[in-house]
Design brief:
Number of helices: 33
Largest sheet: 2 strands, antiparallel
């Protein structure tokens, strides 16, 4: 049977009309979107010539910068998109007045920028200030909390089934709450967390000593795929998801608040470059929230390790991550021990343990809450402390391959083993109560080691510190870090000459991150025409830049967090230590681009719960009466008037669609849906680039 739109009443009729219109434009639109991985070449040769002509004379706006191929406004937009998360309304004019170099210097010195307004927005997330011990006390695992409340096993199972039924019944409502109209079952699932795989350098899986800690990641990014087990956030009334989370006492609230704070900072912080660097370094030194006790260690890790050193010395950053409980647990170095030393220690401790058990019956005499130390699929469980502990190579390998030298850094498997020996004894104090770094000399390998042809003879904890010092000063490390920075800020395949200059600055400045960034920013390669709009926005960058471009007022950022996950980059939930890739090929596929289009339409059309958008304030009230005016204004506001002819043709073909003119095919034009026009422009290939 063939159905017509008129056969369906009410909201069904409207929904099917909407999908019919979108389906008509989707093929052509995705065809264009799939070209975003191709290096950007302007569709307006005359515009390019004009820009070059404007750049012949150095303007006051660009004074002190090696800009030769971009106009004033292009250079400002380039800086706002690369060194931050895109412009908000009025930002271009503000930077023009103060001078682009002055803005850049401010960004390189974030402590000089007043960011109190953004900080006030973070007050609604109390977990950001908590210690690991406090987080465990406030947000224990449900099973532990139920046992503490005196519930029987049957009651626990009954409550779990009730929650499952509520989630299943409210799946569609949860999708609507985030501004989404699901086109397939995946969109009906909670996407705040996912077992996602990213990265560009390879690398082994963390936690090999704890089999079953988490399932293997899917092959590549999976937009819309979810993790019901590691992060089931949709509980209770799905129409009020954020309030449910803020009232929750489950560990998932921790990652929810971390993620909402991250999105809030990207949208509202005046310290845009600093927030870019925090995101970059967390991704570089990735830790997966879903692994066991890292649930309670991740907040202090980002707050006290990454954020404090994002623009400091690289060696200090590596040292801090190496001593971080979150990293020690994630890559299992807290369990690494010299087998012979561990055997001796066990013998010495056996008599003490027997006396302790005889006196206290094996219980903790202080009644302290204990941190989980293992478990399957991110769920804490009991670690057999009587098993033989030996050398764990996870951290030694990732330290060289992912954190410092790079996969082609010239190290061997023997170096991996020797580095692992240097870090034996780097473990955790009271790991099940209040985890802190501790060096345990009793399980350290005391023998001399040889790393990269250099003898390590510091002894004790100095062995590990000497290795970090050695690696941080290697030319391979300077090249690897400079390449990753240039890939993030300049191009997927950055110019080798630029990387070489950045690497030289790295070595000359003792790994000063700010100095390396300055070399990059003040290079002609950064400001070249080839670099302009040459990078694809990752999902997090797209969501933040869209909210900024629309001047959105975000009261509850949970819906935006969920969209970041749906598009393919669930925050704090990248399982492998590689982190998410910075290359376009990872993010450009039909499924991901469809989610990007759906997100842009929902956001611009003010259908995002917790967000308020007024497109008329940007495009003007008169845009509601003329679709061509609305389109031209949107192109000017969101794309600075720069759009390829191919994109323009596709956009103009949609101006007669009933969804845009808000009328049936045979009805007179009533009022233009400016939000749909804005959403289509925001979904264009040009806006997908930065």
């Amino acid at each position: 049977m063939t159905y017509r739109i008129g056969d369906f009443p009410g909201s069904w009729k409207e929904a099917i009309r909407r999908h019919a219109v979108l389906a008509g434009m989707m093929g052509a639109w995705l065809g264009i979107l799939l070209t975003v991985a191709v290096p950007y070449v302007s569709g307006h040769p005359q515009q390019k010539k004009t820009s070059l002509a404007l750049a012949q004379t150095q303007s006051q706006v660009l004074k002190g910068l090696p800009v030769t191929g971009l106009s004033d406004d292009e250079a400002i937009l380039h800086a706002l998109n690369r060194l931050g998360f895109g412009p908000r309304p009025g930002d271009v004019e503000r930077v023009r007045k103060m001078g682009l170099k002055n803005w850049i210097e401010q960004q390189l010195n974030p402590d000089t920028i007043d960011d109190s307004a953004m900080s006030a927005r973070l007050e609604q997330f109390p977990t950001l200030k908590m210690s690991s011990a406090k987080l465990l006390e406030e947000f224990p695992q449900p099973k532990q909390a139920a046992q503490q409340a005196g519930l029987r096993k049957e009651e626990i199972q009954q409550r779990r089934e009730e929650r499952r039924q509520v989630r299943a019944a409210g799946a569609n409502q949860a999708a609507s709450a985030s501004g989404d109209t699901p086109a397939n079952p995946d969109m009906q699932k909670d996407t705040l967390g996912a077992n996602s795989q990213g990265g560009e350098n390879g690398g082994g899986q963390p936690g090999q000593s704890q089999a079953g800690d988490a399932p293997p990641p899917p092959a590549g990014n999976q937009p819309g795929k979810t993790f019901a087990k590691n992060g089931a956030f949709a509980q209770g009334d799905p129409s009020n998801a954020q309030q449910n989370i803020l009232n929750s006492r489950r560990p998932q609230r921790i990652v929810a608040e971390l993620s909402m704070a991250k999105v809030t900072r990207a949208i509202y912080s005046e310290r845009q470059l600093y927030e870019q660097m925090v995101d970059f370094w967390f991704n570089h030194f990735n830790v997966f929230f879903g692994k066991g006790a890292d649930k309670w260690m991740l907040t202090p890790y980002e707050r006290d390790v990454i954020r404090r050193r994002a623009l400091g010395k690289f060696k200090d950053l590596v040292t801090a991550t190496a001593k971080s409980p979150a990293m020690l647990f994630y890559l299992d170095n807290w369990l690494s021990a010299d087998p012979a030393s561990f055997a001796r220690m066990r013998q010495e401790m056996e008599m003490r343990r027997r006396r302790f058990n005889a006196r206290f019956g094996g219980n903790d005499p202080f009644g302290m809450r204990r941190f989980p130390q293992g478990g399957g699929r991110g769920q804490p469980g009991k670690q057999n402390q009587n098993q033989n502990r030996g050398l764990n190579e996870n951290y030694g390998r990732e330290l060289m391959e992912l954190h410092t030298l790079g996969v082609d850094g010239g190290y061997t498997q023997d170096d991996v083993i020797e580095v692992a020996k240097c870090f034996t004894g780097w473990t955790l104090e009271t790991p099940r109560r209040d985890p802190e770094f501790r060096f345990d000399d009793r399980i350290h390998d005391p023998k001399p080691k040889m790393v990269l042809g250099k003898k390590i003879k510091g002894g004790g904890m100095h062995d590990g510190e000497d290795v970090i010092d050695l690696l941080a000063h290697q030319p391979s490390t300077a090249k690897f870090i400079s390449t990753k920075l240039a890939r993030h800020f300049v191009a997927d395949n950055p110019p080798q000459a630029l990387v070489d200059r950045m690497a030289k600055t790295f070595l000359d400045s003792d790994g000063d991150i700010r100095a390396v960034l300055r070399t990059m920013i003040y290079s002609p390669e950064f400001w070249s025409r080839d670099a302009y709009r040459a990078k694809i926005k990752k999902p997090f960058e797209l969501v933040a830049s869209t909210a900024r471009a629309l001047g959105a007022e975000i009261e509850t950022p949970l819906a935006l967090v969920m969209w970041v996950g749906r598009i393919g980059e669930p925050l704090y939930l990248c399982q492998p230590p590689t982190g998410y890739s910075d290359k376009a090929e990872t993010w450009v596929n039909t499924g991901a681009l469809l989610y990007r289009l759906n997100f842009s339409l929902a956001m611009a059309n003010n259908r995002m719960r917790g967000s308020n958008v007024d497109p008329f304030s940007l495009l003007g009230q008169d845009a509601a009466g003329d679709p061509k005016v609305a389109l031209e204004r949107a192109i000017q506001v969101f794309l600075a008037g720069q759009v390829s002819q191919q994109t323009r043709d596709v956009l103009e073909k949609q101006l007669d669609n009933p969804q845009i003119i808000q009328a049936s095919l045979d009805d007179p034009v009533k009022r233009i849906d400016v939000g749909v026009v804005a959403g289509l422009v925001l979904a264009s290939p040009e806006f997908q680039r930065r």
